[in-house]
Amino acid sequence: MTTGDFSDRDGLIWMDGEIVPWRDAKIHVLTHGLHYASSVFEGERAYNGNIFLCQEHSERFIHSADLIDMKMPYTAQELNDAKYALLKANNLTDAYIRPVAWRGSEQLGISAQETKTHVAIACWEWPSYFGDEAREKGISLQVAKWHAPMPNTATTASKAAGLYATHTMSKHTAEANGYTDALMLDYRGLVAECTGANIFMVKDGKIKTPNPDCFLDGLTRQTVIKLAEDNNIAVDICQIEPDELLSADEIFVTGTAAEVTAVGKIGDMTFEVGPITRQLRDAYESLVRQKKAVAA
User: Do 98 and 229 reside in the same domain of the chain?
Assistant: First the structure.
Protein backbone atom coordinates (compact mmCIF):
# COMPACT_ATOMS: atom_id res chain seq x y z
CA MET A 1 0.00 0.00 0.00
CA THR A 2 1.28 3.46 -0.90
CA THR A 3 1.30 6.05 1.89
CA GLY A 4 2.63 9.55 2.41
CA ASP A 5 1.34 13.00 1.54
CA PHE A 6 0.12 12.77 -2.03
CA SER A 7 0.02 16.56 -2.35
CA ASP A 8 3.76 16.89 -1.82
CA ARG A 9 5.56 14.75 -4.38
CA ASP A 10 7.87 15.24 -7.30
CA GLY A 11 6.46 14.50 -10.73
CA LEU A 12 3.87 15.71 -13.22
CA ILE A 13 0.08 15.44 -13.44
CA TRP A 14 -2.15 15.84 -16.50
CA MET A 15 -4.94 18.28 -15.63
CA ASP A 16 -7.61 19.61 -17.99
CA GLY A 17 -5.44 19.08 -21.04
CA GLU A 18 -2.11 20.29 -19.67
CA ILE A 19 0.76 18.55 -17.91
CA VAL A 20 1.57 20.53 -14.77
CA PRO A 21 3.97 20.11 -11.83
CA TRP A 22 2.57 17.68 -9.27
CA ARG A 23 2.30 20.26 -6.46
CA ASP A 24 0.42 22.71 -8.73
CA ALA A 25 -2.48 20.32 -9.45
CA LYS A 26 -5.05 21.91 -7.13
CA ILE A 27 -8.80 22.54 -6.91
CA HIS A 28 -10.91 25.03 -4.94
CA VAL A 29 -12.43 24.09 -1.57
CA LEU A 30 -15.93 24.86 -2.95
CA THR A 31 -15.66 22.31 -5.73
CA HIS A 32 -18.97 20.50 -6.29
CA GLY A 33 -17.27 17.11 -6.41
CA LEU A 34 -15.91 17.63 -2.89
CA HIS A 35 -19.27 18.55 -1.38
CA TYR A 36 -21.64 16.26 -3.28
CA ALA A 37 -19.43 13.33 -4.39
CA SER A 38 -19.95 14.18 -8.07
CA SER A 39 -16.75 12.43 -9.06
CA VAL A 40 -15.66 9.25 -10.83
CA PHE A 41 -12.26 7.65 -11.15
CA GLU A 42 -10.29 4.76 -12.60
CA GLY A 43 -7.38 2.61 -11.46
CA GLU A 44 -5.01 1.32 -14.13
CA ARG A 45 -1.55 -0.22 -14.38
CA ALA A 46 1.20 0.11 -16.91
CA TYR A 47 3.59 -2.79 -17.42
CA ASN A 48 6.69 -2.45 -19.59
CA GLY A 49 5.33 0.84 -20.92
CA ASN A 50 1.98 -0.64 -21.94
CA ILE A 51 -1.22 0.35 -20.10
CA PHE A 52 -3.18 -2.84 -19.58
CA LEU A 53 -6.74 -2.56 -20.97
CA CYS A 54 -6.16 1.14 -21.61
CA GLN A 55 -9.12 1.53 -24.00
CA GLU A 56 -11.46 -0.44 -21.75
CA HIS A 57 -10.56 1.70 -18.75
CA SER A 58 -11.14 4.90 -20.70
CA GLU A 59 -14.51 3.66 -21.93
CA ARG A 60 -15.55 2.69 -18.39
CA PHE A 61 -14.38 6.08 -17.10
CA ILE A 62 -16.66 7.83 -19.58
CA HIS A 63 -19.53 5.44 -18.81
CA SER A 64 -19.14 6.03 -15.07
CA ALA A 65 -19.50 9.76 -15.67
CA ASP A 66 -22.56 9.21 -17.85
CA LEU A 67 -24.20 7.15 -15.11
CA ILE A 68 -24.02 10.06 -12.66
CA ASP A 69 -25.22 12.52 -15.33
CA MET A 70 -21.81 14.16 -15.72
CA LYS A 71 -20.61 14.82 -19.26
CA MET A 72 -17.03 13.77 -19.92
CA PRO A 73 -15.24 16.43 -22.01
CA TYR A 74 -12.74 14.00 -23.58
CA THR A 75 -13.04 11.01 -25.87
CA ALA A 76 -11.54 7.64 -24.99
CA GLN A 77 -8.74 8.20 -27.49
CA GLU A 78 -7.92 11.61 -26.02
CA LEU A 79 -7.75 10.04 -22.57
CA ASN A 80 -5.54 7.24 -23.88
CA ASP A 81 -3.17 9.74 -25.45
CA ALA A 82 -3.04 11.76 -22.23
CA LYS A 83 -2.16 8.68 -20.15
CA TYR A 84 0.70 7.69 -22.41
CA ALA A 85 1.97 11.27 -22.63
CA LEU A 86 1.98 11.46 -18.84
CA LEU A 87 3.86 8.17 -18.45
CA LYS A 88 6.48 9.48 -20.86
CA ALA A 89 6.71 12.85 -19.09
CA ASN A 90 7.27 11.10 -15.75
CA ASN A 91 9.73 8.64 -17.29
CA LEU A 92 7.70 5.66 -16.02
CA THR A 93 7.14 2.29 -17.65
CA ASP A 94 5.70 0.34 -14.69
CA ALA A 95 3.18 2.47 -12.84
CA TYR A 96 -0.24 2.85 -11.31
CA ILE A 97 -2.44 5.37 -13.15
CA ARG A 98 -5.32 7.29 -11.55
CA PRO A 99 -7.69 9.24 -13.83
CA VAL A 100 -10.32 11.24 -11.93
CA ALA A 101 -13.15 13.51 -13.10
CA TRP A 102 -15.23 15.87 -10.98
CA ARG A 103 -17.70 18.72 -11.19
CA GLY A 104 -16.02 22.04 -10.51
CA SER A 105 -16.74 25.14 -8.43
CA GLU A 106 -18.78 26.99 -11.07
CA GLN A 107 -21.98 26.16 -9.16
CA LEU A 108 -22.51 24.94 -5.58
CA GLY A 109 -25.71 23.25 -4.55
CA ILE A 110 -27.54 20.06 -5.41
CA SER A 111 -28.06 21.30 -8.96
CA ALA A 112 -24.91 21.20 -11.04
CA GLN A 113 -25.94 22.13 -14.58
CA GLU A 114 -23.53 25.07 -14.71
CA THR A 115 -20.48 23.18 -13.50
CA LYS A 116 -17.61 22.18 -15.73
CA THR A 117 -16.34 18.62 -15.69
CA HIS A 118 -12.65 18.68 -14.82
CA VAL A 119 -10.31 15.76 -15.47
CA ALA A 120 -6.90 14.93 -14.05
CA ILE A 121 -4.58 11.95 -14.44
CA ALA A 122 -1.75 11.05 -12.07
CA CYS A 123 0.71 8.17 -12.19
CA TRP A 124 3.32 6.81 -9.81
CA GLU A 125 5.23 3.67 -8.96
CA TRP A 126 3.13 1.24 -6.91
CA PRO A 127 4.58 -2.29 -6.97
CA SER A 128 2.09 -4.25 -4.82
CA TYR A 129 -1.21 -3.23 -3.22
CA PHE A 130 -1.16 -5.78 -0.41
CA GLY A 131 2.62 -6.27 -0.17
CA ASP A 132 4.89 -9.13 -1.20
CA GLU A 133 4.11 -11.22 1.89
CA ALA A 134 0.54 -11.73 0.67
CA ARG A 135 1.86 -13.58 -2.37
CA GLU A 136 2.65 -16.71 -0.35
CA LYS A 137 0.51 -16.31 2.75
CA GLY A 138 -2.59 -14.60 1.38
CA ILE A 139 -4.49 -11.67 2.84
CA SER A 140 -6.91 -11.82 5.78
CA LEU A 141 -10.53 -10.68 5.58
CA GLN A 142 -13.10 -9.64 8.15
CA VAL A 143 -16.78 -9.57 7.19
CA ALA A 144 -17.97 -5.96 7.12
CA LYS A 145 -21.17 -4.64 8.66
CA TRP A 146 -21.77 -2.46 5.61
CA HIS A 147 -23.44 -4.04 2.58
CA ALA A 148 -23.43 -3.30 -1.14
CA PRO A 149 -26.57 -1.30 -2.00
CA MET A 150 -29.57 -2.36 -4.04
CA PRO A 151 -28.96 -1.47 -7.71
CA ASN A 152 -32.00 0.85 -7.74
CA THR A 153 -30.59 2.90 -4.84
CA ALA A 154 -27.13 3.72 -6.22
CA THR A 155 -25.21 3.80 -9.50
CA THR A 156 -23.53 0.50 -8.68
CA ALA A 157 -22.14 0.02 -12.21
CA SER A 158 -20.25 3.32 -11.94
CA LYS A 159 -16.81 3.72 -10.39
CA ALA A 160 -18.20 6.70 -8.53
CA ALA A 161 -16.34 8.18 -5.58
CA GLY A 162 -19.41 8.36 -3.34
CA LEU A 163 -19.88 4.58 -3.39
CA TYR A 164 -16.55 4.05 -1.62
CA ALA A 165 -17.43 5.72 1.69
CA THR A 166 -18.67 2.43 3.16
CA HIS A 167 -15.63 0.63 1.74
CA THR A 168 -13.29 3.01 3.58
CA MET A 169 -15.16 2.53 6.85
CA SER A 170 -15.16 -1.24 6.40
CA LYS A 171 -11.44 -1.34 5.65
CA HIS A 172 -10.65 0.86 8.66
CA THR A 173 -12.56 -1.50 10.95
CA ALA A 174 -10.87 -4.57 9.47
CA GLU A 175 -7.40 -3.06 9.82
CA ALA A 176 -8.12 -1.97 13.40
CA ASN A 177 -8.95 -5.59 14.17
CA GLY A 178 -5.75 -6.91 12.61
CA TYR A 179 -7.10 -7.93 9.19
CA THR A 180 -5.87 -6.86 5.78
CA ASP A 181 -9.22 -6.01 4.22
CA ALA A 182 -12.98 -6.39 4.57
CA LEU A 183 -15.36 -8.78 2.85
CA MET A 184 -18.51 -6.94 1.78
CA LEU A 185 -21.86 -8.68 1.54
CA ASP A 186 -24.66 -7.36 -0.64
CA TYR A 187 -28.11 -6.10 0.37
CA ARG A 188 -29.38 -9.71 0.38
CA GLY A 189 -26.59 -10.88 2.69
CA LEU A 190 -24.79 -12.69 -0.13
CA VAL A 191 -21.05 -12.46 -0.86
CA ALA A 192 -20.30 -9.36 -2.95
CA GLU A 193 -16.70 -8.09 -3.03
CA CYS A 194 -13.83 -6.73 -0.99
CA THR A 195 -13.27 -3.01 -0.51
CA GLY A 196 -11.25 -2.65 -3.71
CA ALA A 197 -11.30 -6.07 -5.36
CA ASN A 198 -13.60 -8.81 -6.62
CA ILE A 199 -13.64 -12.21 -4.91
CA PHE A 200 -13.44 -15.79 -6.20
CA MET A 201 -13.66 -19.18 -4.48
CA VAL A 202 -12.35 -22.55 -5.68
CA LYS A 203 -14.03 -25.84 -4.79
CA ASP A 204 -13.19 -29.24 -6.31
CA GLY A 205 -11.26 -27.63 -9.16
CA LYS A 206 -14.08 -25.27 -10.15
CA ILE A 207 -14.39 -21.53 -9.59
CA LYS A 208 -17.36 -19.60 -8.28
CA THR A 209 -17.63 -15.82 -8.24
CA PRO A 210 -20.57 -13.55 -7.34
CA ASN A 211 -22.80 -12.12 -10.03
CA PRO A 212 -21.96 -8.37 -10.15
CA ASP A 213 -25.54 -7.14 -10.13
CA CYS A 214 -25.00 -4.58 -7.35
CA PHE A 215 -21.26 -3.90 -7.41
CA LEU A 216 -18.58 -3.11 -9.99
CA ASP A 217 -17.79 -5.80 -12.56
CA GLY A 218 -14.02 -5.33 -12.47
CA LEU A 219 -11.97 -5.42 -15.65
CA THR A 220 -9.40 -7.61 -13.89
CA ARG A 221 -12.26 -9.87 -12.83
CA GLN A 222 -13.37 -10.21 -16.45
CA THR A 223 -9.79 -10.90 -17.54
CA VAL A 224 -9.27 -13.64 -14.93
CA ILE A 225 -12.56 -15.32 -15.85
CA LYS A 226 -11.38 -15.45 -19.46
CA LEU A 227 -7.97 -16.81 -18.38
CA ALA A 228 -9.67 -19.53 -16.35
CA GLU A 229 -11.87 -20.55 -19.27
CA ASP A 230 -8.85 -20.57 -21.60
CA ASN A 231 -7.18 -22.97 -19.15
CA ASN A 232 -10.25 -25.25 -19.04
CA ILE A 233 -11.18 -24.22 -15.50
CA ALA A 234 -14.96 -24.03 -15.08
CA VAL A 235 -16.32 -20.71 -13.80
CA ASP A 236 -19.77 -20.37 -12.27
CA ILE A 237 -21.05 -16.80 -11.92
CA CYS A 238 -23.68 -17.17 -9.25
CA GLN A 239 -25.01 -16.21 -5.84
CA ILE A 240 -22.72 -17.28 -2.97
CA GLU A 241 -23.82 -17.60 0.63
CA PRO A 242 -21.18 -16.44 3.16
CA ASP A 243 -21.01 -19.88 4.80
CA GLU A 244 -20.16 -21.42 1.45
CA LEU A 245 -16.78 -19.67 1.51
CA LEU A 246 -15.81 -21.63 4.61
CA SER A 247 -15.79 -24.89 2.64
CA ALA A 248 -13.68 -23.48 -0.21
CA ASP A 249 -10.37 -25.09 -1.15
CA GLU A 250 -8.96 -21.73 -2.23
CA ILE A 251 -10.07 -18.10 -2.24
CA PHE A 252 -8.52 -15.21 -4.14
CA VAL A 253 -9.30 -11.62 -5.07
CA THR A 254 -8.69 -9.64 -8.25
CA GLY A 255 -8.32 -5.97 -9.10
CA THR A 256 -6.08 -3.57 -10.97
CA ALA A 257 -4.24 -2.70 -7.76
CA ALA A 258 -4.58 -6.14 -6.15
CA GLU A 259 -3.90 -8.03 -9.40
CA VAL A 260 -4.47 -11.71 -8.39
CA THR A 261 -3.98 -12.13 -4.63
CA ALA A 262 -4.75 -15.17 -2.49
CA VAL A 263 -6.89 -15.02 0.63
CA GLY A 264 -5.34 -16.86 3.56
CA LYS A 265 -7.94 -16.13 6.21
CA ILE A 266 -11.57 -15.10 6.64
CA GLY A 267 -12.41 -14.51 10.27
CA ASP A 268 -10.94 -17.52 12.09
CA MET A 269 -10.97 -19.80 9.02
CA THR A 270 -7.68 -20.30 7.17
CA PHE A 271 -6.98 -21.26 3.56
CA GLU A 272 -3.97 -22.40 1.56
CA VAL A 273 -2.59 -20.54 -1.45
CA GLY A 274 -3.66 -23.29 -3.81
CA PRO A 275 -2.72 -24.45 -7.31
CA ILE A 276 -5.52 -22.74 -9.22
CA THR A 277 -4.80 -19.41 -7.55
CA ARG A 278 -1.13 -19.79 -8.42
CA GLN A 279 -1.93 -20.82 -11.99
CA LEU A 280 -4.20 -17.85 -12.62
CA ARG A 281 -1.85 -15.47 -10.84
CA ASP A 282 1.02 -16.58 -13.08
CA ALA A 283 -1.17 -16.45 -16.20
CA TYR A 284 -2.30 -12.94 -15.36
CA GLU A 285 1.23 -11.73 -14.69
CA SER A 286 2.36 -13.21 -18.00
CA LEU A 287 -0.53 -11.59 -19.87
CA VAL A 288 -0.07 -8.07 -18.53
CA ARG A 289 3.67 -8.11 -19.17
CA GLN A 290 3.44 -9.20 -22.79
CA LYS A 291 5.40 -6.96 -25.11
CA LYS A 292 3.00 -4.89 -27.21
CA ALA A 293 3.12 -1.88 -29.46
CA VAL A 294 2.76 1.18 -27.26
CA ALA A 295 0.52 4.11 -28.24
CA ALA A 296 2.21 7.33 -29.22
Answer: no
Cβ–Cβ < 8 Å for 271, 138: yes
Q: Is-catalytic flag, 226? A: no
- For residue 186, list its beta bridge partners: 148
Range of the domain at 42: 12-124
Segment-wise mean pLDDT, segments of 10 residues, the chain, 296 residues: 84 98 97 97 97 98 98 98 98 98 96 97 89 85 97 95 97 98 98 98 98 97 98 98 96 96 96 96 95 50
Displacement of CA 102 from its chain's centroid (Å): 18
Q: Which of 159, 206, 226, 265 is an active site residue?
A: 159
> Which residue among 103, 124, 145 closes a domain?
124
Given a contact cutoff of 8 angstroms between Cβ atoms, the answer to whether 94 and 14 are in contact is: no
**Is-contact 72 38, C-beta < 8 A?**
no
Assign residue 25 the CATH number of its domain: 3.30.470.10
Query: Among 89, 106, 124, which residue terminates a domain?
Result: 124
